[in-house]
Amino acid sequence: MPAARTQTTTLVGLDIGGTKSHGVRWIDGRMIAEAKTGSANVQNVSVQVAVENIARMFEALGPGRIDKVVAGAGGIDTAADAQRLRSMIAVHAPEADIEVVHDSHLILAAGHASTGMAVILGTGSAVWGINAAGKEARAGGWGYLLGDEASGYWMGRESVRHTLREFNREEPVGELGRLVLEANHVSSPDELIGLFHGDTDRRYWAQQSPLVFQAHGAGDTGATRIIDEAVAYMVTVLGDVSTVLGIAGPVVIGGGLGMHQPLYQQRLREALAGIGLEGIAFLGEDPVFGALFLAGKGCF
């Protein structure tokens, strides 16, 4: 008698950020494919570009039946936002159970935490938390026109503003200003105005956030002020979420900026511990791997 066929479960996890999208395909918890494409977040790219990047993602992850999709993305603030992304994904996974969440949910799950606070510090910024009673709270995550303080884009923009203020005050260009001019291939700060309002996008300026930490290391006081303001903002918003939920942690921090800037990590860890927050951790793996944790918990 032939052996009975064992049913397998295929899960696809998607982390759709402001700069890139990251996807992983698992069969019965074993990763079999991983891919990265451009952003499919319609707050950052057009709907057409988002559709194209999602198509590229599923093509790269390979053919075959998909049972579940867990997709985290910024800008998922309403049921309509979730449905729009779900519809884009369903074209490539028509038989799948598709769950769309704010990308901060992936960060908490990637930290193997069911309750606590998740922080995104990437191109944009957001804080989301959940307590044992299931109550949720958030701060920020409103997009670059309304917020995104302490993010990569915000730091890039503040670097330009600092450079322009020095220029307007007829002060010598400092180390941060020098790095900004060099990175943008311009010789005078006033050229940054047209560049900023031209064809450059948020990703372009977010990618210049490391200049702030480089200039701080060289003693630039303007760069130090930007870092101080970012840390102070995070203390405020995490304090708000902590108060609303009545919890002190854990705090799981992800996003490209939060995961890859040691000085920022040190400053945040010290400042957040100073207001009584606990279990402060910086992701060691990409947020997309939180999809496997969520699916394994049977959340969906």
Write a structural description.
- This protein is an alpha/beta fold and 300 residues long.
- The chain is 43% helix and 20% strand.
- It folds into two domains: 10-111 and 285-296, ATPase, nucleotide binding domain (Nucleotidyltransferase, domain 5); 152-282, 2-Layer Sandwich (Nucleotidyltransferase, domain 5), CATH 3.30.420.
- It has helices at residues 47-61, 79-90, 103-110, 152-168, 175-183, 191-196, 202-206, 210-217, 221-245, 256-260, 262-274, 290-296, and strands spanning 10-16, 20-27, 30-38, 68-73, 97-102, 116-121, 125-130, 136-140, 251-254, 280-282.
- Helix 4 (152-168) crosses helix 5, helix 4 (152-168) packs antiparallel against helix 9 and helix 8 crosses helix 9 (221-245).
- 47% of the residues are buried.
- The model is unreliable at 1-5 (pLDDT under 50).
Q: How many DSSP helices?
A: 12
C-alpha termini separation: 36 Å
Please provide the ordered H/E string of secondary-structure elements: EEEHEHEHEEEHHHHHHEHHEH
CATH architecture of the largest domain: 2-Layer Sandwich
Per the CATH scheme, the topology name of the largest domain is Nucleotidyltransferase, domain 5
Q: How many domains make up the 3D coordinates?
A: 2
Mean pLDDT: 91
Q: Tell me the β content.
A: 15-25%
The CATH superfamily name of the largest domain is ATPase, nucleotide binding domain
- Rg, Å, rounded: 21 Å
Biggest sheet details: 5 strands, mixed
CATH classification, class level of the largest domain? Alpha Beta
Domain ATPase BadF/BadG/BcrA/BcrD type: 12-271
Protein name: ATPase
Pfam families: BcrAD_BadFG (PF01869)
